[in-house]
Predict the 3D structure of the following.
Amino acid sequence: MMSTNMVPILDLNPLPAPYWVFKVLLLVTFFLHLLAMNAMLGGAVLAVMAHFTGKDRTHGNRVFLDVAKKIPSLLPATVTLGIAPLLFLQVIYGQFFYTSSVIMAWPWFSVLVMLTIAYYGFYYVSYRGGKDPGRAGWVMLVSTLLVTFIGFIYSNNMTLSMDPNHWAAKYFAHPNGLNLNLSEPTLFPRYLHFFVAAIAVGGLLLVFMALANWKRDNDYARRLLYFGGKTFTFATMAQFVVGILFLMALPREMIMLFMGGSPLASGLMLFSIVASGIAIMVMSKAVRTGNIKVAAVQVPAIIAIVIAAMVVMRDILRDAYLKPYFHPEQFTVKTQWTVLPLFLLLFVAGVVLWIVMMRRFFKAKSVSAS
Amino acid sequence: MNYPVWDLSVGAGLLIAIVAILHVFVSHFAVGSGLFLVVTERKARRDNDPALLGWVKKHTKFFVLVSVVFGAISGVGIWFTIGLISPQATSNLIHIYVWGWAIEWVFFFLEITAGLLYLYGWDKLEPKLHMWFGWVYFWNAWLSLVVINGIITFMLTSGNWGKDQQFWTGFFNPTYFPSLLFRTAIALALAGVYALITASVLKDTALKARIVRWAAAWTIPALIVLPAIGWWYIKRIPADIWANARGPMPTATTYAGLAVLLIGAALLLALVTVLMPKRMNLAVSLLLLLISLGAMGSFEMVRESLRKPYVISNYLYSNSLYSATLPGDGGFSEDEVSANGALKSAHWVVNKEITPANELDAGHEVFRVECQSCHTQNAYRGIRKLIAQRQWDEAKIEAMTGGLNFMHNGVMPAFAGTDQERVALAKYLSSLEPITTEATNASVDGATVFARNCAMCHQVTPADPLFTNLVRDPAAAADALQSLPALFPVMPDLKLTAQQRAAVVQWINAQRGPGGPAYSAQAANTEGAK
């Protein structure tokens, strides 16, 4: 059996807008999803660390609870912002994505179960953590492990979807969907790359919390800045090692893409390395001098751009993997002019309403509890 | 065949039913409660009722934990599940309706944000602003229903979409409005039902009584109008689809009956709670919740069984074959697969060529790509049990698989593939539950012979062609049954023994009583010559 024959044919219904529209929407929404996901996952890991490490228990518990209380907002943000890229992914990469999902159907399906358990766990910690921090710590640990593992399953599915050559062997060995993509050499470095990035962003979450507490409780805020800033610098430094491991694990022709083969890919990588280096230096200095403004504004701004660059590099890599099987020029396009403008209109209106909601909520002066 | 089939031993249909029913049960609650919460908050503030206000606040927390958490995840869950079980249909729907989903996502995002801020705002916001968040939540939740309803109803009644393939043609299909109204009523009913749960544990019995009566004012009217809307809904379903719903096996009509029964039970129970509001307790509220879940589940099963054999009406069968040959279908239509062979057409099979050595495996693969979207071996709609009940030997299975599309009013697509593949399929199915020819021929009781050989395609009603057209003369009839295809070309060539034929004819004649047109031997000749 030739594996190319196994790649499902394109959907016979035309694309309801040009290919690039979906590509742009996919990348933009995926970027937003990554921001929320990184903050959620990294925050959860740091909350666990705050709970289980360090000598000052009162302080550790305070950090733990403060961070843990953010997760029940960050997780729905992750999920809702994840739905959009999942939608647009299916429009243009459905042939690959559905297939890999079916091949590893049970792990993929189990994401739902794990997510539900993790979610309720996070709520438990945020509501009951103050009363029983001991038990809450363990619940937090379990929930965090679950979301960590969910990320791993995503990495499995995404790598498998780009590798039609290995589909047949896996599917026919276990058509019941009990497969992962563990034989993929880039799987672990790739996953680690995402995971470590999440830790770094988790550090930034603590820096934001330091900013929020700066006037109210400066002593606490400084400790948050220290913990968050240090975590960020170490994680980002580790990222250089992990990133090189990831790059080296790639097939040769993909490595070459980032070594000059593709000017865009190479430029983005160079930029990311330099920008991350700068972010590390800026953050170290801000932590040393206690400059919260720099730590909470400049560094996150740099990192947001780096993440955006990562999203584009990831996309270049995907298309390089899929090159033999994926030919966007084969899509037939029939733009749905009676719907697309409506979506754009509602999207803009939605963004405006969302901003209005946020402003009204955060500007409101607290009224006494009724 | 274009996509691999997840070999799910518990049953693809069962998994999707569980995920879908749980999701709709929570998501309708999420819509209805949006309205319920703000309106109740407004009432409490207007009546200056701090106790009620305190309860609304507590109920908001419960609401978020159920709807924002489980509702959102199970919604993603439906996506995951249909993608795993019907990737082809999901891909079709995504390509036709991605902008619909994108719009729904905008509403959904606003809904979740507003819902959380409504919860967090209880201690922070002044009343007017707080209620504003409640309204933003409700309208966005309802609007996401307005959008998704178009896509769901499209799957059941695609209307004129087949003609122009326009987004809005399929969206505003014949059942769009009845379904929207139906679901809105369900949402309101469920808002009241869920409210009873947090109300039932209150210690303040006066407050509890007030809430129970207030919740009933939401549930009872909604339950009363539901059957009427349901009737309108059914009227809008094309007659041929609804006709398919009748029949002996658990079909849409059975589930519709069950839904009406459960709605009635819920109504009764709701009335009882109004009469004795102070005696309301957790057990009663959970019972009501369970009954409502049953009613909602039955409603979903009505849709599910009405849609069969399609996932997308008049377009794609459950087993992912297109019902008509279309440009760009990749050879995955019923006719093309019949002409080229299932194994040759499918991308995801090992055995492309059938040999005596691989026949059983090949038959298994045919089963997987053509039947497993609805059947399992041993579990949900298990084929082994069906064969055991009918006592079919291999020859009979082979004959019967030629007429699947006639069984149970057409719940199944026809077998698509070569005769050789059908033989292999029969061999495989027979290996699951080997029945000897002696066992097949052992039944000599007329009713049993009928049940095992005719009942899947013929109904015991005077109007069924079997009863109107079979000659009444016992000998001639028994003779005619020697070859069913000679009686009517599409019938399977079942080899009944002389004894079985005599018995079934006797039974058939006993059912229809004496008299009628086809009584003479002469009629037998004309019929037989047909």
Summary: Residues 162 and 315 of chain B are 8 Å apart (CA to CA). Confidence is low (pLDDT under 50) at residues 518-530 of chain B. Chain B has three domains: 12-310, 334-439, 442-529.
